Amino acid sequence: MKEFLRSRIFGWAAFAVITIAVLAFLSLSETARSKGISGTLILQLFISGISFGSIYALVALGFAIIYKATSVVNFAQGQFLMIGAYSCFGILSNLTSTTSIPWVWAIILSLVFAIVLAMVVERLILRPMIGEPIISIIMATIGLSYVLRSIATAIWGTDPQYFSPKLFPDKTVSVAGLNLPYEYIWGFSLSITLLCLFGLFFKYSKAGIAMRATAFSNQVALSMGISVKNIFALSWCISAVVSFIGGILLANITAVSVDLGYMGLKVFPAVILGGLDSVLGAAIGGIVIGVLENLSDGVVSKLFGLQGIKEVAPFVFLVIILMIKPYGLFGTEEIERV
Q: Is the pTM here over 0.85, yes or no?
């Protein structure tokens, strides 16, 4: 145990020292100053990255929950996120044309739809495949992602749409010389609150403990009288709910479009970094990837003239992490002795 903690602490300390050293060098070097890169800009990007990354963490939580319960990587997670944004947009735009509906009701109706969609997918697609090879289940989730994307395209088209009115006011607040948009502040606050609530749910609630027992061993859970099938369904529902919320928060910052589905793929490095079966790891991984993405876009691209580095950086980081720690920072290492 001491060795385990020591290795984690050493890893995080090394990561923090390297990050601080690189940031200090970038902010102080003559080249950086000549290209408009200052310490204030880096700090602004860092804080914005934490805010954006907290939403990634929420989506990464959906990946981790399904993997812990069913050992399946859901490649349709990004499309759940996209459908969440579109469903909320559809409720707002259609209903507000004849009557006004508060945002809170639009979100509640969207989450109800998320639960229904998750139960349909779990009951009609995933449950019949229990016991099938894992590659078959993964292919089913990939097929599901294309089906959901096609449905969204058929209904709403491919042009970006925008919430009207927006969920949060389009204003900024100045704190210590930094301009922080309201939507980033609210997005961060809601994401962290939900992550804490789900953490408490898994640790103290009866359903949460049953989910942890199922994740540990299906046979053990069955022997304790836990319905594994119900736990699988609950896992899909929670995963869909957090993805829908993440989709609404991201769409409020960017736009409602089918491209939101790719966010699920961008969140994947966050899940790998934290560990596929670790809820805490998913939260930390999401924030790290958000910061990395922001700094890549605002600093590295200016410094070296590398356009599009923001899209590539998380996946380069993913390859590095897989080479150094294949199970992520907090993932469970599987040791096979032959």
A: no
